[in-house]
Amino acid sequence: MRSIRRELVLWLSIGTAVLSAVAGLVSGRVVENRLRQDFDEDLLATAQTIMSVTEQDAGRYVLEFSYESMPQFSTKAPLEYFETWSDIGEIVERSRSLAGAGLESPFSRDESPQIWNALLPDGRPGRLLQMTFVPQAEEESASISGPQTRSRQAVLVLARGRDELERFVRWVYLTDLAIAVGLALALALCVEFVLRRGLAPLAKVARDVGALDERSLETRIEVSPAVDELDPIVRRLNLLLERLQAAFERERRFSGDVAHELRTPVAELRTLAEVGGRWSGDAALASALFADTAAVAERMERVVAQMMTLARAEAGQEPIESSPFDLAELIDECVVSCSPVTRDRRISIELHLDRPLPVFEDRNLLAVILRNLLENAVAHGPEDGTITVEAHATSDGEVRFTVTNAAPELQRSDLEAMFGRFWTKDVARSNARHSGLGLSLVRTLAGLLGIEVEARRDEIRGLLTLAVQLPARGLRSPV
Amino acid sequence: MKVLVVEDSERLRRSLGEGLRRSGFAVDLVDNGDDGLEYATHGDHDVIVLDLMLPKLDGLSVLRRLRALSKKTHVLVLSARDRVDDRIEVLNAGADDYLVKPFSFDELLARIHALVRRSYAQKDPKVRVGNLEIDTLAKAVRLDGKPVDLSAMEYSLLELLVLRRGRILGREEILDRLYASGLEPSSNIVEAMIYSLRQKVQPRGSPPLIVNRRGQGYLIEAS
Prior knowledge:
The complex is a heterodimer of chains A (479) and B (223). Chain A is an alpha+beta fold and 479 residues long. Chain A contains 10 helices and 15 strands. In chain A, a hairpin with a 5-residue loop joins strand 12 and strand 13 (399-406). In chain A, helix 1 (4-52) packs antiparallel against helix 3, helix 6 packs parallel to helix 10 (438-449) and helix 8 packs antiparallel against helix 10. Chain A is rod-shaped and about 160 Å long. In chain B, 40% of the residues lie in helices and 22% in strands. Chain B has a 5-stranded parallel sheet with strand order 2-1-3-4-5, with helices on both faces. In chain B, helix 4 links the parallel strand 4 and strand 5. The longest helix of chain B is centred in the middle third of the chain and has 15 residues, at 105-119. The interface between A and B is medium-sized, with 28 and 30 residues.
């Protein structure tokens, strides 16, 4: 797996090593040039010393050289060598250090100094300097002979070992290389330390996130003290975790609710069947149990149908087919469908509707919404009570539909909770006809249709109003 | 034997009541936690069958309050919750047994019988008293190996006296154990049943099995 820290350390170290090596090479080259230049200048200075003690007297060369002052030309190591040649190519003088051997012959008579590398007689690599010069005439000779005496040229070849120079140059390069490598290593350690320290909050976030699973969704990522660069990421992550936790919690609750909603009727069915089977000879008992069995099956069917509709709506699989129709007619149909229960519970429904009330919506889905709102009022409103249903068009083209019933036990906190799945005022699902899915279905379908549903409570009169607001669709002509 | 069923599902409550009554139990049925606690506190039940999700007061609270009142009646909890944590919580709150919905009625019956036996420290469902053998599972009685034909109420009275042998049971206590709460049986029903039982399970000439302690009640001697 890629590691930002490892890559930064690697590439910064390589970069530093390469830059240090180039810098070392350049500086080594500068130092080398300077050393060689100094070497040559020193060689030249020595040559000039030798030339200065070389004189000519009446056509002869005289070298007043003192080996004591320059012992390197006799026996003192490291040995240096010189030869002086006459203008006719004869050896004039050889340093004692040559011990009779010779240096390379001069290769030209050029008066400018010539410098080149060659092997010394002792086998060491050396630097040779050749200079053509005119030895000074001795003072006496000069004054006697006068200007008529012809001055003769001489050639000096001077040799000095450069082994020490080469060693020093190598040492310079090696030192530069060592500095480059050392710098790279030091920088790698430094970068590693700095990155480890700097990226510690990121590493902590990575560890915290890595430790998350479905059982620890209540955990929140914390970076203390806050880091500017990480703050937006951490806030996003925590927001995501919050949503994930809510989704998991919803799913868990839903699974639990589904299990309960299905287990209870299954338990009912099983007990009804087993008790009926145990005393199968009792016709009256069997008849009562069969009636109960049918009622349980009907309830299960309703729950399953509602759950399927909810699941389809949430998955976006519920097709929307809008068409113009009269909402007042649809409300009348929904009221009629509730009439068996309203009769049983002696509930009267007061209708206050604009007639006709043209709307442009999906009639089937809106029917499910209206029927569930009415069924909710009929099931939970008090017996012998009154339900008020109103539907009016507003001046700006919207349509408002409300269902109002008495709900004295309802709390303000219930107004939002009642739209949750399987919510009932009491913890028990004692109402055999209602699963607690109706209002959840209403809200989901309303969201699908883009219409608003809200619950309001009249504190003084203890009334609950569920209101549906249909937006203006640009169709308010008679149907 | 008397059972209290606290269950909010009307159909389940009704069918359980019917099944338990036909299985020889006196049954009290209530549909919410408040009434359940009231009946359990003041009634004399052998077993309480308690649902957890109840209106007014949930089953777990009913159970905890009962135990806080030192009420030792055996409680069998019925619940749709099947997680181990739920069972542990309920058992730790003082439940004696736990049954997950949906359940088999036969299993429920067997567990109620087991709890009844536990109430009377009776491990064997067959009880012997002299020449009499009572099978508490089959609700059958044999005298000298021959079956004895008893009505359901006669059997219940005999079972009560046998399981509580050595203890005097007053008339009111017998009525409490044999009849669902609120029923008003005729005033001499206990005496009539005792007379009928003696005729059926007490051989002529043998010492009396069911002893009448004047002013106190009836008992079957422990030996």
